[in-house]
Write a structure and sequence with these properties.
With 252 residues, the chain is mainly alpha-helical. It has 9 helices and no strands. The protein has one domain. Helices cover 77% and strands 0% of the residues.
Length: 252
C-alpha cells in the first residue's frame, strides 16, 4: 500500500486531534463523554492502522475488526445526542426510553435481512459478509438521523441548530457517503473497487469537518421550558405535542 493510501488516515487523525482540542476549549467534552470516547478511540484506531499499512493482509483484518468498535461507539454517541435534545421527553415519558433502542433493533433486523438477500456481485463470501455488516450499520445510522429530525420537527415544531444536531449530521454525512460507495461497488463489482476503497474515508473526513464546525454552534438549552416567557408560547408548544400525537395516531 502506497503513500496515497496513508493520506486519508493522516488527514483524519489531524482533523480528529483538532476536534478534540475544540471539544475541550468549548467545554463540550464533559457534557458528551460518549462522543469524546468515540473520537479518542477513532484517533487510536487510525494511528494503529497507519502502522500496519505495509502489511496488507494484517491491515485488512485489523481494519474490519476495528470497524465493529466504530459502529458500537457511534451508536452510543448518537444516543447521547438524541438524549440531550429530547431530555424533557425522557424525563416525562417512561416509554420514550424505548424509542431509540427499539428503532435500532427494528432497523437492524430489516437491513440485515436485506443485506443477506442481496449480496455483493462478484465478491468473495468474506467480502460479502463484511460489506453486509457495514451496510446494516450505516443504514441504521442513516435512518436514526431521519428519525431524529422527524421527532425534532414533530415534538418541537421548529429546527434547533445546536451542537447535538451537528453531531448527528456528521454521522449522517459519513453514512451517506459510505452507503453510496458500497452501493455502486455492489452494482459494478470489482470495476468500482477504488470507490469502495476511497469513498468511505473521504465522506468520514467531511463528517469530522462538520463536527469541528458544530463546536461553534450553541449547546442545547438546559430546559426548553425555561425559555417560555408567556403562557401563549407554552400553549403553542403543548399544541405541537398534541399535533404530533394526532399525526402518529393517523388523525388530522
Amino acid at each position: 500500500m502506497g503513500k496515497i493510501d496513508a493520506f486519508p488516515n493522516v488527514v483524519v487523525v489531524t482533523l480528529l486531534l483538532t476536534l478534540t482540542v475544540f471539544l475541550a476549549r468549548r467545554k463540550l467534552a464533559r457534557k458528551f463523554p460518549l462522543f469524546l470516547s468515540y473520537i479518542i478511540l477513532a484517533i487510536l484506531i487510525e494511528l494503529f492502522r497507519l502502522l500496519l499499512l505495509g502489511d496488507y493482509q494484517l491491515y485488512f483484518k485489523v481494519y474490519w475488526a476495528t470497524e465493529a468498535l466504530y459502529a458500537i461507539l457511534a451508536l452510543l454517541a448518537l444516543y447521547e445526542a438524541f438524549h440531550d435534545v429530547f431530555i424533557i421527553d425522557y424525563r416525562d415519558y417512561s416509554w420514550f426510553r424505548m424509542v431509540f433502542p427499539g428503532a435500532v433493533l427494528v432497523l437492524t433486523i430489516v437491513f440485515a435481512s436485506y443485506a443477506l438477500l442481496h449480496p455483493v456481485a462478484g465478491a468473495s463470501p468474506i467480502i460479502t459478509l463484511i460489506l453486509s455488516f457495514e451496510t446494516v450499520v450505516n443504514c441504521v445510522k442513516g435512518w436514526l438521523f431521519v428519525m431524529f429530525l422527524a421527532l425534532a420537527w414533530l415534538l418541537m415544531g421548529e429546527s434547533w441548530p445546536t451542537y447535538p444536531y451537528g453531531v448527528v449530521l456528521g454521522f449522517a454525512v459519513s453514512t451517506t457517503g459510505t452507503l453510496l460507495s458500497y452501493r455502486l461497488f455492489s452494482i459494478f463489482g470489482t470495476k468500482a473497487s477504488w470507490l469502495g476503497k476511497y469513498g468511505p474515508p473521504v465522506s468520514y473526513i467531511l463528517a469530522v469537518a462538520i463536527w469541528i464546525g458544530s463546536c461553534f454552534l450553541p449547546p442545547e438549552p438546559e430546559d426548553r421550558w425555561k425559555n417560555f416567557t408567556t403562557t401563549e408560547e407554552a400553549l403553542a408548544t403543548v399544541r405541537q405535542y398534541m399535533k404530533a400525537l394526532r399525526w402518529i395516531a393517523g388523525k388530522r
